[in-house]
Specification:
about 35% helix; globular; 5 strands; Aminopeptidase; alpha+beta; 4 helices; about 150 residues
Length: about 150
Amino acid sequence: MTTTIRPLQPSDRAAWQPLWEGYQRFYEVEIPTETTDRTWARFHDASEPMHALGAFDDENRLVGIVHAIFHRSTWLPDWTCYLQDLYVDASQRGRGTGAALIEAVADLARANKAGRLYWTTHETNVTAQRLYDHIAARSGFIQYRKPL
């Protein structure tokens, strides 16, 4: 099977939505529709440092998504790229789609002269951690959140 990775276009919204909802179900969160609509619009606004890429199978079906955000860092002179969301349809897992999406974000980060690409995952997501441990290095940092 061949997977094609490309930036998502506004016309991909209907195919993206079920994967985005699957991602939310996996992490047991519910993101308000207004936030999802705003996020989708930001992906397609050239002034926003947000990107959405999709993995398409041989039949041109969207089978995986990844979102990336570029930001400044006090530790690096160039951009930093945060891979915020990664989701592959359950029927496609174990076929290299997740790794291909991560590599596509790495290519995007290199093209934008980012000095670092990083991401997080939940401590219980051991399946993803097996992939991540194979293709990247753990930073040793633990994330904390303070409700605002």
